Amino acid sequence: MLFAWAAGLRINTSPSVPVGVYWRTPIAGAEIERGELVFACPEPGRHQAAGARLPSGWCPGGKRPFLKRVAALPGDQVAMTEAGLRVNGQLLPESRIEPSLGEQLQARGMRPLVVESPVPSGFIWLLGEQPNSYDSRYFGPVPVQTITGRGG
Questions:
Q1: I need a labelling partner for 16 at 20 to 30 A (CA). Which of 68, 96, 119, 126 fits?
Q2: ∠ CA(107), CA(108), CA(112), 5° rounding?
Q3: How does pLDDT run across 31-71, given as a tens digit for each residue?
Q4: Beta-carbon neighbour count of residue 146 at 10 Å?
Protein backbone atom coordinates (compact mmCIF):
# COMPACT_ATOMS: atom_id res chain seq x y z
CA MET A 1 0.00 0.00 0.00
CA LEU A 2 2.87 2.38 0.76
CA PHE A 3 4.19 1.82 -2.77
CA ALA A 4 0.79 2.75 -4.26
CA TRP A 5 0.73 5.95 -2.21
CA ALA A 6 4.30 6.82 -3.22
CA ALA A 7 3.37 6.20 -6.86
CA GLY A 8 0.53 8.73 -6.61
CA LEU A 9 -2.55 6.68 -5.71
CA ARG A 10 -5.03 8.77 -3.69
CA ILE A 11 -8.46 7.86 -2.35
CA ASN A 12 -10.99 10.67 -2.24
CA THR A 13 -13.78 10.32 0.32
CA SER A 14 -14.96 13.94 0.11
CA PRO A 15 -18.15 14.67 -1.82
CA SER A 16 -16.51 17.78 -3.35
CA VAL A 17 -15.61 15.63 -6.36
CA PRO A 18 -16.75 12.07 -7.09
CA VAL A 19 -15.66 9.63 -4.38
CA GLY A 20 -13.07 7.25 -5.77
CA VAL A 21 -9.45 6.49 -6.50
CA TYR A 22 -7.31 9.12 -8.23
CA TRP A 23 -3.74 9.16 -9.50
CA ARG A 24 -1.84 12.26 -8.47
CA THR A 25 0.60 13.23 -11.18
CA PRO A 26 3.09 16.11 -11.01
CA ILE A 27 2.09 19.39 -12.59
CA ALA A 28 4.01 22.58 -13.32
CA GLY A 29 2.22 25.88 -12.69
CA ALA A 30 2.25 26.81 -16.38
CA GLU A 31 0.43 23.57 -17.23
CA ILE A 32 -2.69 24.22 -15.14
CA GLU A 33 -5.84 24.43 -17.25
CA ARG A 34 -9.36 25.57 -16.49
CA GLY A 35 -11.63 22.62 -15.75
CA GLU A 36 -9.01 20.09 -14.66
CA LEU A 37 -8.82 18.42 -11.25
CA VAL A 38 -5.88 19.42 -9.10
CA PHE A 39 -4.56 18.65 -5.64
CA ALA A 40 -3.78 21.78 -3.61
CA CYS A 41 -2.35 22.03 -0.11
CA PRO A 42 -4.26 24.32 2.25
CA GLU A 43 -2.07 27.20 3.28
CA PRO A 44 -1.01 26.85 6.94
CA GLY A 45 -2.85 29.29 9.16
CA ARG A 46 -5.42 30.26 6.53
CA HIS A 47 -8.09 27.62 7.15
CA GLN A 48 -8.44 27.36 10.96
CA ALA A 49 -12.12 28.31 10.83
CA ALA A 50 -12.85 25.28 8.65
CA GLY A 51 -11.81 23.06 11.56
CA ALA A 52 -12.72 19.40 11.11
CA ARG A 53 -13.68 19.90 7.45
CA LEU A 54 -9.96 19.55 6.70
CA PRO A 55 -8.65 16.09 7.68
CA SER A 56 -5.08 15.45 8.76
CA GLY A 57 -2.58 14.82 6.01
CA TRP A 58 0.90 15.40 4.62
CA CYS A 59 0.67 19.06 3.54
CA PRO A 60 2.51 21.79 5.45
CA GLY A 61 0.36 22.53 8.46
CA GLY A 62 -0.60 18.85 8.74
CA LYS A 63 -3.73 18.88 6.55
CA ARG A 64 -4.78 16.75 3.56
CA PRO A 65 -4.72 18.42 0.14
CA PHE A 66 -7.92 19.61 -1.50
CA LEU A 67 -9.01 17.86 -4.70
CA LYS A 68 -10.94 20.46 -6.71
CA ARG A 69 -11.56 21.67 -10.25
CA VAL A 70 -9.81 24.74 -11.55
CA ALA A 71 -12.63 27.24 -12.09
CA ALA A 72 -10.60 30.30 -13.05
CA LEU A 73 -7.05 31.18 -14.06
CA PRO A 74 -5.00 34.36 -13.68
CA GLY A 75 -6.72 37.22 -15.49
CA ASP A 76 -10.16 35.57 -15.54
CA GLN A 77 -12.91 37.81 -14.19
CA VAL A 78 -14.72 36.17 -11.25
CA ALA A 79 -17.95 37.37 -9.68
CA MET A 80 -19.56 35.62 -6.71
CA THR A 81 -23.29 36.31 -6.88
CA GLU A 82 -26.38 34.91 -5.16
CA ALA A 83 -26.92 32.76 -8.27
CA GLY A 84 -23.39 31.35 -8.02
CA LEU A 85 -19.90 31.88 -9.37
CA ARG A 86 -19.53 33.61 -12.71
CA VAL A 87 -16.26 33.27 -14.57
CA ASN A 88 -15.83 35.69 -17.47
CA GLY A 89 -19.60 36.28 -17.33
CA GLN A 90 -20.58 32.59 -17.47
CA LEU A 91 -22.47 31.13 -14.49
CA LEU A 92 -20.88 27.84 -13.41
CA PRO A 93 -23.24 24.97 -12.53
CA GLU A 94 -23.61 23.96 -8.87
CA SER A 95 -21.65 27.03 -7.78
CA ARG A 96 -24.25 28.74 -5.60
CA ILE A 97 -23.19 29.04 -1.96
CA GLU A 98 -24.95 26.41 0.13
CA PRO A 99 -26.80 28.31 2.89
CA SER A 100 -26.16 25.68 5.59
CA LEU A 101 -22.41 25.65 4.88
CA GLY A 102 -22.37 29.43 4.84
CA GLU A 103 -24.04 29.47 8.26
CA GLN A 104 -21.62 26.88 9.68
CA LEU A 105 -18.60 28.81 8.47
CA GLN A 106 -20.02 32.15 9.64
CA ALA A 107 -20.45 30.63 13.11
CA ARG A 108 -16.68 29.95 13.01
CA GLY A 109 -15.87 33.49 11.91
CA MET A 110 -15.76 32.97 8.13
CA ARG A 111 -18.01 34.59 5.56
CA PRO A 112 -18.60 33.51 1.97
CA LEU A 113 -16.68 35.75 -0.38
CA VAL A 114 -18.49 38.45 -2.28
CA VAL A 115 -16.16 39.51 -5.02
CA GLU A 116 -16.00 40.78 -8.53
CA SER A 117 -12.44 41.00 -9.66
CA PRO A 118 -9.84 39.43 -11.90
CA VAL A 119 -7.88 36.46 -10.54
CA PRO A 120 -4.43 37.83 -9.68
CA SER A 121 -1.28 36.61 -11.38
CA GLY A 122 0.08 33.52 -9.63
CA PHE A 123 -3.33 32.45 -8.31
CA ILE A 124 -6.26 30.23 -9.39
CA TRP A 125 -9.85 29.68 -8.22
CA LEU A 126 -10.82 26.18 -7.13
CA LEU A 127 -14.39 24.85 -7.15
CA GLY A 128 -15.84 21.59 -5.87
CA GLU A 129 -18.59 19.80 -7.75
CA GLN A 130 -21.14 20.03 -4.92
CA PRO A 131 -22.96 23.10 -3.57
CA ASN A 132 -21.55 22.47 -0.07
CA SER A 133 -17.92 22.15 -1.13
CA TYR A 134 -15.38 24.14 0.88
CA ASP A 135 -13.50 25.92 -1.91
CA SER A 136 -12.53 29.33 -3.31
CA ARG A 137 -16.06 30.61 -2.76
CA TYR A 138 -15.09 30.68 0.93
CA PHE A 139 -11.31 31.08 0.97
CA GLY A 140 -10.61 32.97 -2.26
CA PRO A 141 -7.98 32.33 -4.90
CA VAL A 142 -5.12 29.99 -4.05
CA PRO A 143 -1.46 30.46 -4.93
CA VAL A 144 -0.37 28.30 -7.87
CA GLN A 145 2.59 27.10 -5.77
CA THR A 146 0.14 25.24 -3.46
CA ILE A 147 -0.84 22.94 -6.36
CA THR A 148 0.87 19.60 -5.75
CA GLY A 149 -0.43 17.63 -8.71
CA ARG A 150 -3.12 16.77 -11.20
CA GLY A 151 -5.89 14.32 -10.26
CA GLY A 152 -6.87 11.78 -12.84
A1: 119
A2: 80
A3: 889 999 998 888 876 666 555 566 777 777 777 788 899 99
A4: 20
pTM: 0.78
Mapped onto helix, strand or coil, the DSSP state of residue 88 is coil
As a whole number of Å, the CA-based R_g of the chain is 15
Q: What is the CATH number of the domain that holds 120?
A: 2.10.109.10
| Total number of domains constituting the chain | 1
Cross-sheet strand order for the sheet of 123-127:
9-12, 20-25, 147-151, 37-40, 66-72, 123-127, 142-143
Backbone angles phi, psi at 127, to 5 degrees: -140, 130
Q: Are 124 and 70 in contact (CB under 8 A)?
A: yes
